[in-house]
Amino acid sequence: MNITCINGDQTDHVNASDRALQYGDGLFETIVIREGEIQFWKQHIQRLKKGCQRLGINNVDYARLTAEAEQLCCNQSDAILKIIISRGITDRGYRFNTNENKSLATRILSLHKLPSYPQSHYDRGINLRLCQLEMGLNPTLAGIKHLNRLEQVMARNEWQDETIFEGLMRDHHQNIIEGTMSNFFIVKNDRLLTANLSYCGVAGIVRQLIIDDKIGHQLPIEITQICEQQLISADEVFICNSVIGIMPVKTFSQQTYGLGPVTKLIMRQYEDFVRQTNNCGF
């Protein structure tokens, strides 16, 4: 299943002058459709709007975007909806046209097969590794899901071992920021700790739900700098994103963790939240 819609037309051809292709000038969201419902539509669109505001992409027709997503997803049971917003087609050069009437944002929506993961990943946990590539610091781009993902591409291709599910990435201060495709939390002394994303990294949807206590853990949370030793000495570790949900970590750097009570609680509360929430935000 690969269906692509560009500016309302079912096609997979992008203009070669589009700034997404020329400069990576845009943002994207990856959204789960499960049992015919789009999960966390409101949260994804809020993050998309925040990213567009940060980048000065002020010419997005969100009403059309929503209508196109609804039409594309209406007959889907389980799938992934990917949304890409590009600043649009402009003349060559880094400077973009601030006249919105001359340059309209490009809307790219595509449907993909929903990935499935072994139940053992949730029952017993996954294996993590530490990536060597260091993330650059840029507070202007920190938190948003912009199209420049070369750091993640390079980091993910550091390993081919199928027993390693995810790799954690550091900045040049050796603070662990995130996984190549996920955020992470550690549990220590009945406290939740997660990385500070003020200078780099993606502020994930599920990460924010946990921070906002929408998933009912009722534990104190600290957003802070986290080093490798803190991860090794943690009581529990888990990763999260809106596609995988929440996965416990089994091993990291020769350290073994059990599926602890806090992670179990958050996994259970997350599943309850997904079931109880009206996820179709149209």
Element-level helix/strand string: EEHEEHHEEHEHEEEEHEHEEEH
CATH topology term of the largest domain: D-amino Acid Aminotransferase, Chain A, domain 2
Summed up, the domain count is: 2
Briefly, what CATH class of the largest domain?
Alpha Beta
Class per helix and strand makeup: alpha+beta
CATH homologous superfamily placement of the largest domain: D-amino Acid Aminotransferase, subunit A, domain 2
The shape, in one word, is: globular
Number of DSSP helical runs = 8
Spatial gap, N to C terminus: 23 Å
* Major β-sheet profile: 9 strands, mixed
What CATH architecture of the largest domain would you give?
A: Alpha-Beta Barrel
What is the typical, i.e. mean, pLDDT?
A: 93
* Percent helix: 25-40%
DSSP, total strands: 15
Radius of gyration: 19 Å
Low-confidence parts, pLDDT < 50 over ≥5 residues? none
- What is the strand content? 25-35%
